[in-house]
Amino acid sequence: METVLNILLIRFGIIAGIVVVVGLGAFALIVSLRRRGKGERVREGAAVLAKSAARAMDRRGARGVRGRVGGEVVRQAARWLDEDPGRKRSGR
């Protein structure tokens, strides 16, 4: 029993480490793109991708709680990318 718990703990640690590394990499990528002035172009591409993902989830008919929650998250992300008031600030 102790061996199984150790294996599960090690697996959790590896997965958590991977999530942290991917998150830091994504953050660094976003910061570098914004400094180069390409943030708006990336935002537009992400908005298109989120809209198409939302349409695909609607077509597929989100089944179960996870499907409904995932579809709602994608729709909210698409809405946020389209209507973000932070883009309208001057000086950046």
Automatic annotation (TrEMBL):
Keyword Transmembrane carried by entry: yes
UniProt keyword list: Membrane, Transmembrane, Transmembrane helix
Transmembrane segments: 12-33
Highest taxon of the lineage: Bacteria
Descriptive protein name: Uncharacterized protein
Annotated source species: Amycolatopsis dendrobii
Organism phylogeny: Bacteria, Bacillati, Actinomycetota, Actinomycetes, Pseudonocardiales
